């Protein structure tokens, strides 16, 4: 096998490989013979199919598969001998036809950047710390009770925390919503499910009461014709319901799988769940700030543009939503670059410091993920049987291990937060 390498700007490489055509011919010949021994073709006894028949019917397929496998294996040999580290799958070009007793193909790809030794001792990282306190457990239990509250119709006027069903129509200039009749809407006053001015105007009104008001709709209101405009609104209250919370008794806690131990055991379970969520949130925050510091410290790192482009396209698809056309990927390129840089730096730190996947941590993370599902054993089995899912899980665990290593070797200070501060969206 002959190999030559050409630099194609930056991290691009063009690998030209020449292999003896006899290697392919031998593989094809052996497969034809093997298929002849096993093929079942009408008109021939098993194991007695002539070689020419096999070649006529399956020759092109066999040769194509053998060539693909040969290119794959020799490519790995070539990059290993040339000490190249491909960052992406190569683009292969070949006629597949022998010339002068050789088959030639070219593989174009980008390689991993040259990092050099990565020193993290100078990184200044703030690790956020928090703990679950009794008031946090109380608050979560109240949240669980609220989620299971009952609603009872009342004849009194609506007030905060009531559920109100009402019919609405609005006129803003020449625009009317809806075009005819009224839209039936429901909300819990104070929940901010609807703009505050709409919920507030319901207070003090009873079922079957009709009234009108002039309201200023927010700029981000879901109805474009009303967004950012003042409108004359007609409202008819259909029903007012007040909430009642379930008692914190054996019946209530049994719904959460607690059959023994009473409220004390229920509180233990709630605390354990909160601590698990808090631990994951704190780990995510530490990872985010660690990766940010690493990327900023290597801002001039040359990265494979193809990897960045692919990441930007993935981000655009996710931002568009499932089943919708992807957005233009160009606005995501800057964020994609940072993501790629972060992933590469973590992987390189693992390589340079011989950080290996901890199978115990993989099992623990899988158990943690599975515990959030009704049938955890089924999820564990799914991961166990799916190499792609398991590989993704292992990659996450390895990145977490690298983050822990960085935190142990960098300049780390701690900043205390409350449980709510950590768990607040966007906090």
Distance between the termini: 58 Å
Helix segment count?
12
Task: Return the CATH architecture of the largest domain.
Answer: Orthogonal Bundle
CATH topology of the largest domain: Trigger factor, domain 2
Main sheet: strands, sense, barrel = 6 strands, antiparallel
Instruction: Kindly provide the name of the CATH class of the largest domain.
Output: Mainly Alpha
SSE string = EEHHEEEHEEEEHEEHHHHHHHEH
Average pLDDT level: 92
Judged by helices, strands and strand pairing, the structural class is alpha+beta
Could you tell me the radius of gyration in angstroms?
Answer: 32 Å
Sequence stretches where pLDDT stays below 50 over 5 or more residues: none
Total count of domains: 3
| Proportion of residues in helical segments | 40-55%
Query: How many strand segments?
Result: 12
Key terms:
427 residues, alpha+beta, Alpha-Beta Plaits, Trigger factor, domain 2, Chitinase A, domain 3, 6-stranded antiparallel β-sheet, 4-stranded antiparallel β-sheet, 46% helix
């Amino acid at each position: 096998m002959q190999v030559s390498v050409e630099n194609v700007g930056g991290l691009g490489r063009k690998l030209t490989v020449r292999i003896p055509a006899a290697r392919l011919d031998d593989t094809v010949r052996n497969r034809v013979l093997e298929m002849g021994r096993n093929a079942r073709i009408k008109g021939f006894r098993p194991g007695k199919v002539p070689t020419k028949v096999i070649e006529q019917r399956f020759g092109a397929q066999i040769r194509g598969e053998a060539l693909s496998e040969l290119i794959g294996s020799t490519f790995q040999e070539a990059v290993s001998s040339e000490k190249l580290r491909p960052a992406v799958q190569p683009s292969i070009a070949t006629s597949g036809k022998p010339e002068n007793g050789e088959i030639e193909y070219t593989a174009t790809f980008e390689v991993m950047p040259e990092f050099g030794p990565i020193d993290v001792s100078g990184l200044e990282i703030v690790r956020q710390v928090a703990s679950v306190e009794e008031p946090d457990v109380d608050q979560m239990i109240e949240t669980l009770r609220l989620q299971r509250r009952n609603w009872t119709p009342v004849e009194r006027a609506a007030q905060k925390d009531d559920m109100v069903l009402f019919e609405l129509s609005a006129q803003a200039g020449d625009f009317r919503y809806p075009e005819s009749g009224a839209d039936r809407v429901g909300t819990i006053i104070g929940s901010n499910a609807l703009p505050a001015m709409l919920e507030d105007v319901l207070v003090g009104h009873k079922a079957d009461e009709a009234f009108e008001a002039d309201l200023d709709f927010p700029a981000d209101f879901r109805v474009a014709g009303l967004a950012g405009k003042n409108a004359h609104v007609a409202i008819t209250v259909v029903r007012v319901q007040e909430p009642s919370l379930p008692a914190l008794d054996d019946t209530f806690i049994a719904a959460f799988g607690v059959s023994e131990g009473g409220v004390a055991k229920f509180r233990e379970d709630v605390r354990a769940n909160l601590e698990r969520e808090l631990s994951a949130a704190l780990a995510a925050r530490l990872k985010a700030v660690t990766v940010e510091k690493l990327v900023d410290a290597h801002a001039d790192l040359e990265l494979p543009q193809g990897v960045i482009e692919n990441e930007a396209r993935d981000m655009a698809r996710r931002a568009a939503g499932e089943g919708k056309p992807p957005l233009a990927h160009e606005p995501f390129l800057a964020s994609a670059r940072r993501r790629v840089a972060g992933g590469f730096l973590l992987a390189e730190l693992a390589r340079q410091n011989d950080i290996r996947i901890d199978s115990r941590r993989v099992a623990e993370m899988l158990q943690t993920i599975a515990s959030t599902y009704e049938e955890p054993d089924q999820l564990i089995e799914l991961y166990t049987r799916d190499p792609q899912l398991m590989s993704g899980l292992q990659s996450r665990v390895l990145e977490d291990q690298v983050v822990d290593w960085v935190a142990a070797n960098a300049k780390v200070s701690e900043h205390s937060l409350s449980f709510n501060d950590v768990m607040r969206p966007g906090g």
